[in-house]
């Protein structure tokens, strides 16, 4: 496997412009001769489909949802960053670039991040023209808010539903092209494999989730906008259907998988309430501005929070980090909460939670001020827990919600399989080891609207592809692989439900490859995951048939892939003998408990190559260079 | 708590379908859908087919979930999708009837899952502003009065779940269609295509087997995002104007 980043030469602020000029174009009249498959209809997939169709390519867009509008981008709350500098507070493309590289703990590719910052402004123009109802100031101009530690106010937002509004904008653009006949939309189709002919990605195999039909679809290029893999943890803030299958199937066909151990754990989520829990709900991080985090000083304290006197409470973040207090960065807040629970000081029935208390803030500011600031969040919390946070402290706990790792892509967003692209959360490219708030939406739309449509033209213009006949042996072989795997799943008639395997796997990954990792735990996980995978293939039960809607079968295929991915995740975490961003190795920390990078040995991307179902993956490295933002130790003292 | 569930089971679109009864054991902390997850786990471990129902984000924003609970779309709570409904609403011994959305425009696919792609086709008919990627003017070149932007946002909050259709005695999709039209028609960017948008969306809505609006207001009552029926009045006005314009 060869890793050529294809970063253009020249000064960083000219790379993208120069590259756009140097890339080959496809003549407008010839574009209709090329077909592109886009898998996924989230922000990245929908925006790419719409833009490619506007340009004249024949696009087919696949989604497993009943409508493209359901993709998980819809759940993003906070906002989208852009370097418009509308506030006149000193923002610039370079500052957004700088913040993102630093926030990623110096593990992202500089040139990609710069391009992201560069196109951020066009994104806002595009979205406003589409009618996204962004928040406005009284004069009618766009409003901004500050977010996630940045020192400038650069986040554009539509109430707490920015992801929803951006996705609907991309979805509407997509539907416009469906109406024009430029996009063929395939709802309720799940991609189960990539068809690779002569080393090039030439199509995919899907299962129609309603009829069960397995079909091959051929094209000149394939684009995966299929999201992240946080559901490897079983419990995460991701939607129920989010899965790694498309990316994993691509990995098994030769696409390198980069930095799988880079996962982000969000500190303020509503805790698990019981075994039946199906997913976790994020509460905006802004709550930490006024809430105080504490647990009882005593382990196994069963008293109600109101019965624990002030001097028996441990406001541990304020105690450990007097300078930042409750506002320490996400990773620290998450890890310290876990420490408290590990010491038996967790709160609530399950003992996996800490208090986030607004009593002092209400006393200081009054309940109405708190309501104005956080009313909708308090309501959401009460709806889920039945507890009134104005009177009883909230209980919060960290939860997985984003994965920085993903399919390796070059500067053109192409994976190691020619003709196969990965965009949005599905690729690894822009966030390094840690993503900043309000940057996920930015990357999804940047890739889909402004990067991929240019770079794919260069590929198509140069590739000189021969048409692939439908009865090509590779097509038949891939179809056969998919059918036999489904038959194998349907034949499982053991004693355990698919869900029970997913739960057990999630618990393992969370315990050993979650907020804090160490060598012995990871080795333990690396022994147990293959055992669990073997048990799955012997003892799981999949009821029903393949010729109609079968949600158990759908889930079984996804869980089987998570059972493979998790092993590579743990392996990746084990060999990265340093801490950086979301990857925290207990062996590598400063005396203050901060992540301690090892730039000398780990300033690289780790990329895994599939070598066969029964052999370990092969490790490759793409070295990273920091020419414009010299690496420094992050410090929050 | 122990509950008795009567759940609509229908193997395929052509199957007649009917209610099946299940005993469920639930904790008050569960969400309604987690209660169904537990029922499904039990069914699966007995080798029986689980109840098919659709749900994804489970935080009330994706619009995937939806079922009629004791006659009410999304169940008894206001401003709530069924995925946000929690079991503390119920007590030991309760009987719960669970059905899919029922409307000609939403054919049943299996059990509680219906095909809502008609909504996509209504949007495709005109629920967008035509702007090619890259052709947009500088964002602040189009000022939008704050009040307008807020009203557009109120309408844009629609999650496309279909509860409005399920609640309507005529199975009309007017609230959905009007909300999308209002979002775009309220904004300056939406003006050039305003009339065509309204005509085409209404035409498509009718072709998709949805009924007409007779001002019951059941849609507003069922809407988990509290979209107001004033958007329907706005659409009706726009429709008249568009018809006059079209001559």
Keywords:
heterodimer, A: 637 residues, alpha/beta, FAD/NAD(P)-binding domain, Flavocytochrome C3, Chain A, domain 1, Methane Monooxygenase Hydroxylase, Chain G, domain 1, five-stranded parallel beta sheet, five-stranded antiparallel beta sheet, 21 strands, 15% strand, B: 247 residues, alpha+beta, Ubiquitin-like (UB roll), Fumarate Reductase Iron-sulfur Protein, Chain B, domain 2, 2 domains, five-stranded mixed beta sheet, two-stranded antiparallel sheet, 8 helices, 7 strands, 35% helix
- Overall helicity of chain A: 25-40%
Average of per-residue pLDDT values of chain B: 97
| Greatest interface by residues involved | A-B, 83 and 79 residues
List the uncertain runs of chain B: none
Describe this structure in words.
The complex is a heterodimer of chains A (637) and B (247). Chain A has 637 residues and is α/β, with parallel strands linked by helices. Chain A folds into three domains: 35-264 and 402-463, FAD/NAD(P)-binding domain, CATH 3.50.50; 265-400, Succinate dehydrogenase/fumarate reductase flavoprotein, catalytic domain (Flavocytochrome C3, Chain A, domain 1, Alpha-Beta Complex), CATH 3.90.700; 473-600, Fumarate reductase/succinate dehydrogenase flavoprotein-like, C-terminal domain (Methane Monooxygenase Hydroxylase, Chain G, domain 1). Chain A has 17 helices and 21 strands. Chain A has helices at residues 15-22, 28-31, 43-55, 93-103, 110-130, 162-179, 245-252, 316-320, 330-342, 359-365, 367-385, 440-463, 473-490, 498-513, 519-539, 551-575, 599-602, and strands at 35-39, 58-62, 80-81, 155-156, 183-186, 189-197, 200-208, 214-218, 221-224, 257-258, 263-269, 292-296, 313-314, 354-357, 394-403, 406-407, 420-422, 496-497, 540-541, 604-609, 618-623. In chain A, strands 5-2-1-9-17 form a five-stranded parallel beta sheet, with helices on both faces. The radius of gyration of chain A is 24 Å and the shape is globular. The mean pLDDT of chain B is 97. A five-stranded mixed beta sheet of chain B has the order 2-1-5-3-4. In chain B, strands 6-7 form a two-stranded antiparallel sheet. Chain B has two domains: 2-109, Ubiquitin-like (UB roll), CATH 3.10.20; 116-246, Alpha-helical ferredoxin (Fumarate Reductase Iron-sulfur Protein, Chain B, domain 2, Orthogonal Bundle). Chain B is an alpha+beta fold and 247 residues long. In chain B, helix 2 runs antiparallel to helix 6 and helix 3 runs antiparallel to helix 5 (174-185). Chain B contains eight helices and seven strands; from the N terminus they run E-E-H-E-E-E-E-E-H-H-H-H-H-H-H. Chain B has helices at 32-45, 117-124, 146-156, 163-167, 174-185, 194-207, 218-222, 230-246; strands spanning 2-9, 18-25, 68-69, 72-73, 95-99, 108-110, 113-114. In chain B, strand 6 and strand 7 form a beta hairpin.
């Amino acid at each position: 496997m060869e890793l050529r980043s294809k970063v253009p030469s020249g000064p960083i602020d000219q790379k993208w412009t120069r590259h756009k000029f140097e890339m080959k174009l496809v003549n407008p009249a010839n574009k209709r001769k090329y077909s592109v498959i886009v898998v996924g209809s989230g922000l990245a997939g929908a925006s790419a489909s719409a833009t490619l169709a506007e340009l004249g390519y024949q696009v087919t867009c696949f989604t497993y949802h009943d409508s493209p509008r359901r993709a998980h981008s819809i759940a993003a709350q906070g906002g989208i960053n852009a370097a418009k500098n509308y506030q006149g507070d000193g923002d610039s493309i370079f500052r957004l670039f700088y913040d993102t590289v630093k926030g990623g703990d110096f593990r992202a590719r500089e040139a990609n991040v710069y391009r992201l910052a560069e196109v951020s402004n066009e994104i806002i123009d595009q979205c406003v023209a589409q009618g996204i109802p962004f928040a406005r100031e009284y004069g009618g101009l766009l409003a901004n808010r500050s977010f996630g530690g940045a020192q400038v106010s650069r986040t554009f937002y539509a109430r707490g539903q920015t992801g929803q509004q951006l996705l609907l904008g991309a979805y509407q653009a997509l539907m416009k092209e469906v109406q024009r006949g430029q996009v063929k939309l395939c709802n309720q189709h799940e991609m189960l494999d990539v068809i690779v002919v002569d080393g090039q990605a030439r199509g995919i195999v899907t299962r129609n989730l309603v009829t069960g039909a397995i079909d091959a679809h051929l094209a000149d290029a394939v684009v995966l906008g299929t999201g992240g893999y946080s559901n490897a943890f079983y419990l995460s803030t991701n939607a129920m259907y989010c899965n790694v299958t498309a990316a994993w199937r691509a990995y098994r066909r030769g696409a390198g998988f980069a930095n799988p151990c880079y996962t982000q754990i969000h500190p303020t989520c509503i805790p698990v309430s019981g075994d039946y829990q199906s997913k976790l709900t994020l509460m905006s991080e802004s709550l930490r501005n006024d809430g105080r985090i504490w647990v009882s000083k005593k382990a196994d304290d069963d008293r109600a929070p109101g019965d624990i006197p002030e001097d028996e409470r441990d406001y541990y973040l304020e105690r450990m980090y007097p300078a930042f207090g409750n506002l320490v960065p996400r990773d620290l807040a998450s890890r310290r909460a876990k420490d408290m629970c590990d010491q038996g000081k967790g709160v609530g029935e399950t003992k996996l939670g800490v208090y986030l208390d607004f009593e002092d803030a209400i006393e200081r500011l009054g309940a109405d001020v708190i309501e104005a600031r956080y009313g909708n969040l308090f309501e959401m919390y009460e709806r889920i827990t039945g507890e009134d946070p104005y009177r009883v402290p909230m209980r919060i706990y960290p939860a997985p919600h984003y994965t920085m790792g993903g399919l390796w892509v070059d500067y053109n967003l192409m994976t190691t399989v020619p003709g196969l692209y990965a965009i949005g959360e599905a690729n690894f490219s822009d966030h390094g080891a840690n993503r900043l708030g309000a940057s996920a939406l930015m990357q999804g739309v940047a890739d889909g609207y402004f990067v991929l449509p240019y770079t794919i033209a260069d590929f198509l213009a140069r590739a000189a592809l021969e048409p692939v006949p439908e009865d090509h042996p590779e097509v038949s072989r891939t179809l056969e692989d998919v059918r036999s795997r489904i038959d194998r799943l349907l034949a499982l008639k053991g004693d355990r439900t698919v869900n029970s395997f997913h739960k057990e796997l999630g618990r393992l990954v969370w315990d050993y490859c979650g907020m804090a990792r160490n060598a012995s735990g990871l080795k333990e996980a690396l022994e147990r995951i293959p055992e669990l995978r073997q048990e799955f293939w012997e003892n799981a039960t999949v009821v029903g048939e393949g010729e109609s809607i079968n949600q158990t079968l759908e889930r079984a295929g996804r869980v089987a892939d998570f059972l493979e991915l998790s092993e590579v995740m743990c392996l990746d975490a084990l060999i990265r003998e340093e801490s950086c961003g979301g990857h925290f190795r207990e062996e590598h920390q400063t005396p203050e408990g901060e992540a301690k990078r090892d730039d000398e040995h780990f300033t690289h991307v780790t990329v895994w190559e599939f070598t066969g179902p029964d052999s370990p993956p092969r490790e490759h490295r793409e070295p990273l260079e920091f020419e414009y933002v010299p690496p420094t130790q992050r410090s929050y003292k | 708590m122990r509950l008795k569930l009567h759940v609509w089971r229908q193997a395929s679109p052509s199957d007649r379908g009917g209610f099946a009864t299940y005993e469920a054991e639930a904790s008050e902390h569960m969400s309604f859908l987690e209660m169904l997850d537990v029922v499904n786990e039990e069914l699966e471990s007995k080798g029986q087919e689980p109840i098919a129902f659709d749900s994804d984000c489970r935080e009330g924003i994706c619009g995937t979930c939806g079922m009629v609970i004791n006659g009410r779309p999304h169940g008894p709570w206001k401003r709530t999708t069924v995925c946000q409904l929690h079991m503390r609403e119920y007590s030991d011994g309760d009987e719960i009837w669970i059905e899919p959305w029922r409307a000609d425009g939403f054919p049943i696919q299996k059990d509680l899952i219906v095909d809502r792609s008609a909504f996509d086709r209504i949007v495709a008919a005109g629920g967008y502003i035509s702007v090619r990627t890259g052709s947009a003017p500088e964002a602040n070149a189009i000022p939008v009065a704050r009040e307008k932007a807020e009203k557009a946002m109120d309408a844009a909050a629609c999650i496309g779940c279909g509860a409005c259709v399920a609640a309507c005695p005529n199975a009309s999709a007017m609230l959905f269609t009007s909300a999308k039209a209002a979002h775009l028609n309220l904004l300056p960017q939406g003006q050039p295509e305003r009339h065509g948008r309204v005509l085409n969306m209404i035409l498509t809505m009718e072709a998709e087997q949805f009924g007409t609006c007779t001002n019951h207001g059941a849609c507003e009552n069922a809407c988990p995002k509290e979209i107001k029926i004033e958007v329907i009045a706005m659409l009706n006005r726009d429709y008249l104007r568009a018809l006059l314009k079209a001559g």
